[in-house]
Amino acid sequence: MKVDDIRKICVVGSGSMGHQIAMLCALGGIETTVQDISQEALENARRKLEAILDDWVRKGKISESNKKTAFSRLTFSADLMEAASDADFVIEAVVEKLDVKRKVFKKLDELTPPHAILATNSSTIVNSLIADVTCRPDKVCNMHFFYPPLVMDCVEVVMSDATSEETAQVTLDLCKRIGRTGVLLRKEISGFVANRILGALQKEAMKLYEMGIADFRDIDLVVTKALRHPLGPFQLMDLSGIDVIHYVMKQQYAESKDPNDCPPRFVEEKVEKGELGRKTGKGFYDYDKKDRVRS
Asked: Do residues 26 and 181 make contact, with C-beta atoms less than 8 angstroms apart?
């Protein structure tokens, strides 16, 4: 299969990543269906995309005509069979839990055409842990977009030992077709490249905070002012979701048994309290309804 053979894409999951990935594909000229089991989630996804593209029109990033054309290519569906049965390429963006992803891939393998490539957006679960539930492990890979997908340019494409060269190349070509830079990883490793580097920074920041060396706000100031990062590590954890960070660290610890990979107690306390970052209005920082930090 070649990238030009991709006439329809199915994105499974309409959450913070899925709906934006779907719009990227629609903006790239491809008929796309975003599927979710929740009709409410789909309606929320549509509203968010309308708000984003309306803002782009106001700022002159796209024309009203291009916005309407993109939405004309985008379908929202709660029916997985309807969404996936004629898809040439599927991007799974459901909750970051292995058992859920395996169930989704097993179903996708049954519903999609034999030629379809099945990609997972996961940044923590390597595709070989999922591909064995399908009859096409050679057509399975990771296609890891960064948050928010409509802004961030890079996509990590990860091969397992079973992933074919054709699958990897088509996925890289698809990245280019939708205006993103694809980076190929020929071997699997949890966290891939970006999140392993970022994770090292976050772990050191958490250690400094846990030791009482500096307040989390001051650590963020050093990283943004001295290292010129756009966000400090604690700001970024709030953006990503502290529950996601907690889950990723637990996964890494389960694999490595390295105590340095174990989430610190203050992160566990945040999760227990439901203080998960921007999405709950409180994490390390407090947020208003427009996601601005309360002073």
From this structure: no
Q: Residue 105, exposed/middle/buried by CB under 10 A (0-12, 13-18, 19+)? A: buried
Instruction: Tell me the CA distances in angstroms from 20 to 43, 144, 176, one per residue in order.
Output: 14, 13, 16
* DSSP output for 128-155: HHHHTTSS-GGGEEEEEE-SSTTT--EE
Tokens of 77: 């569906």
194-280 matches 3-185 in CATH topology: no
Q: Which residues of 223-256 are buried (b: 16+ CB within 10 A; e: fewer)?
A: beeeeebeebbbbbbbbbbbbbbbbbbebbeeee
pLDDT, mean of each 10-residue run, the chain (295 residues):
98 97 99 98 97 97 97 98 98 94 98 99 94 98 96 98 99 98 95 90 97 98 97 95 90 85 95 96 93 84
Distances (CA, A) of 59 to 29, 64, 65: 22, 11, 14
78 contacts 102 by C-beta, under 8 angstroms? no
E strands present in the chain: 8-12, 31-35, 74-77, 89-92, 117-120, 140-145, 154-158, 181-185
Intra-chain end-to-end CA distance of the chain, in Å: 54
> What is the CATH superfamily name and number for domain 194-280?
N-(1-d-carboxylethyl)-l-norvaline Dehydrogenase; domain 2 (1.10.1040.10)
Task: Judge whether 21 and 49 are in contact, CB under 8 Å.
Answer: no
Classify 3-185 by CATH class. Answer: alpha beta
Domain residue ranges in the chain: 3-185, 194-280
With contact defined as beta carbons under 8 Å apart, do 2 and 170 qualify? Answer: yes
Whats the size of the chain, residue-wise?
A: 295
